[in-house]
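Worked example 4.2. Below are the chains of a multi-component assembly; read each line carefully before continuing.
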Amino acid sequence: MTNSEKNRLKDKAFQVFGIFCTFIGLVVLAIFLIDIVIEGIGRIDWDFLTSLPSRRAARAGILTAWAGTLWILVLSALIAFPLGIAAGIYLEEYAKKTKLSDFLEINIANLAGVPSIIYGLLGLELFVRFMHLGPVLLVGALTLSLLILPIVIVTTREAIKAVPRTIRDGSFALGASKWQTVWNQVLPASFGGILTGVILALSRAVGEAAPLIVIGALAYVPFVPSSPMDEFTVLPIQIFNWTSRPQAAFLTNAAAAIIVLLLITFLLNGIAVYLRHRQQKKIKW
Amino acid sequence: MTKKQSKLEASNLDAFYGDFQALKNINIAMEEKAVTAFIGPSGCGKSTFLRTLNRMNDYIDGFRIQGQIQLDGRDIYAADVRVDELRKEVGMVFQKPNPFPKTIYENVVYGLKIQGIKDKKLLQETCEKSLQQAALWNEVKDKLDKSALALSGGQQQRLCIARALAIQPSVILMDEPASALDPISTAKIEDLIHELKKDYTIVIVTHNMQQAGRVSDHTAFFYMGELVEHAKTKTMFTSPKDTRTQNYITGRFG
Amino acid sequence: MRVQEKIIEGLLWLSAAITVLVTASIIWVLLSESVQFFSEVSIVRFLTEKEWTPLFAEKKFGIMPLVAGTFLTTAIAIAVALPIGLTIAIYLNEYAHARFKTFIKPLLEVLATIPTVVYGFFALTVVTPFLQSFIPGLAGFNALSAGIVMGVMIIPMISSLSEDAISAVPRSLREAAYGMGSTRLQTAFGVMVPAASSGILVSVILAISRAVGETMIVAIAAGQQPRLTLNPLVPIETITTYIVQVSMGDVPHGSLEYRTIFAAGMTLFVFTFLLNNLSFWIKKKYQEKYD
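Applying the procedure described above to all three chains together yields the following structure tokens:
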């Protein structure tokens, strides 16, 4: 075999290995999803979705867990959405390129890299102990909002950056002020992109368990929260709790709850992908 | 022929981007209800000067000016001048058509709406009038609620002119308004400029000398941040005083 | 109207400034509790003792077992994710069709969107039993399966960041390599990967940082037994798991046991902070090089 033939053979071999690697993760994912569905789908029925938690696996349901997850989803959106967009607008449209803005930028990049459990410690000390709010929905939502704030800010900036300079010039030239230009031109043109980012960030928040466990969210909450000041649990914590038990029946419950959690996550991601796609189709500069 | 009075006047104007001096001691008076063209090679400062006339450079970090620019005898950089008021008086049309991603109607009335005008009838009347002035009305009157992005490039640029006219300025600045357009659209824009100078003072930047010759009454030649020569267009094109002007006009550099 | 503009700008500024407040609060929270912790337990003990048993009657406060557990799971995760992720990046850049790339990339991203508690369940109920079938002596809780699953989770992180780095290499370099008769493989490893090495390094550092801070997978599947070991087959405990373990119990606020989670959290924060800033620094240097 000549050298060149050997080289070509190696090239082919790597190509096969490349395909293998590209699909291995997806295959593992598929095996896993199938396994979960087989184990859990039979457990999902109306009772499972509408029952309170119970010490007996067969009677336990996820009503409080998914209600808590929805509460967290809405509250986090209400907090992180305006805050993150406002910060993104400031950094992209108002801040002059100074040492201070460089510092803000590095700071946000750093916050994005802080492990979620550290945010839990922050929430525990700041909201639960210092402000005496207790381990309630509001605290959970505040904690997760801080966690996803960097993501919201970064995606807002990306979306705003994509709006051409000429649109701003056009608006200024007609006598519009900075804020009128941002409000009437920049935000409407970038809203799809911003919304996509926010939804992706929320889907991250919905899957988080660690920071909520640290602030003291309980695994066993025998009532559906009715206000932001109520104690709560969420689906990931319920899944964690059931997974930690030795009885097989609880693992089945966990698998069923995972199906519900994944549906919520995939739904949010699906909406985000759809919005991004629509935005790209709608506006071509 | 009575001498018309000057509308815009720059005296001893210097402009800087950080340490770079983009304009050097510019002195020029622009006549009312006439077209003044700025010509010169790229980077000569003509666009920078145009943008100082409605303070569009205010938002650029590190940009500053020395000297004075007067509009109707008032210093436009004085502390008590409000930029938004100035820009209602001095409209601008850009190099590339930049309609907002909204309907045609919304584009035209945008300047009025941000002034807080809500009167539907007034808005609609102004919209029609501005589009007619911009010679676009007949082409778009049936699709005012369609997206402005669906118009052709030439139509978009006339829409941008209509948008500027809607706020009733007295001066219109045009930054190479036809450079992104085909010859037919360019001709339409040039005809339009002829019409508009009856009512407006127009300042146009162009790198196309034929265009300057066709549309302008006066021409100013900029070179490396300096105003080399300013004269009646006919005079300048037939007997330029400065050799640099002569070289540029005859195409020795560009 | 000018006043209104100023107020709005002020509010926007405040929103941006909150991010600084968040960082300051994190550092303050971790520091204030850690300082109190270290006033009772010396830093020397914290760094040198070989056991971590703050919840037992006989208390030992050596962080090393938790660091070892964290290091072990992280190393396994990177050992899985780096070769696979980098191969994917090279394959997509040098071999795959553009259409295949646009189709496969969002699919790979799905791996990163799955909640980590779900990965934990997978590690415990699928991967561990599977590995046990051919690794005798593999405990029910172990670093190996938690690390492997964590590796799967961070594949898209390494593959997409590395791919960005590789595709940022100037075309002319690749064409020069092809021009000399290199195969795609030789071009990839001889030219592209070395040229993109700093970008690839950044992706690996960020992946390490992510793995160090990962909580639910290890809390579910790796065990809760702090152990100074590099044996991947036995139960261990990571820093993050310990914080979860204490949070699930009923340790009174303000006690020494309570403060251990902040000392542990501080250790974790320092690790990730250093890693993240190292990656920023490399990224900045790298960008300057190509400008």
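Take a moment to check your reading of the output against the notes. DSSP finds eleven helices and no strands in chain A. Chain A has two domains: 3-43, 46-282.
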